[in-house]
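In response to reviewer comment 3 from the previous cycle, which asked for concrete evidence that the modeling workflow produces usable outputs, we include below a single protein chain processed end to end. The sequence was submitted unchanged, and the resulting structure tokens are shown without manual editing.
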Amino acid sequence: MNKLILGILSIALVALFITGCGNNSVGNAVTDLESSSVVITENQGPVKDINIEAYNWNFNQDDVVVNKGDHVVLHITSKEGTHGIMIPGLGLSTGEFSPGEEKIIEFDADEAGSFDYFCNVPCGSGHKSMRGQLVVEE
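The workflow returned the following structure tokens.
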């Protein structure tokens, strides 16, 4: 019986290890919703630093445009209210941040397209209008 349990645990650990070492379409992502940054690294191109400020109930810019191959560093802060940003098409999320706190999302723009982003922390009556788009041009 003990050998059976050890065998099942061994198989489960190997499967967990293999799953954790998988690759996604935007590079090797580390997404820690409790930390201050999300980093995706692969091939670093020209660096594009972008500041996004959240406030009730909008962002200071709706569209962010970068070039394919850019190494993008999004510096995200809140002027008022508690917010978060999620970019589902890239599998990225900052987690929650409050006024005066900065979150950083860093990644390589290796796929052209338009990627919606939005506040993923319920922040009041205008929450649903907190949307923008990240455009990666060829």
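Residues 2-20 form the longest helix (19 residues). We consider this sufficient to address the reviewer's concern, and the full set will be provided in the supplementary archive.
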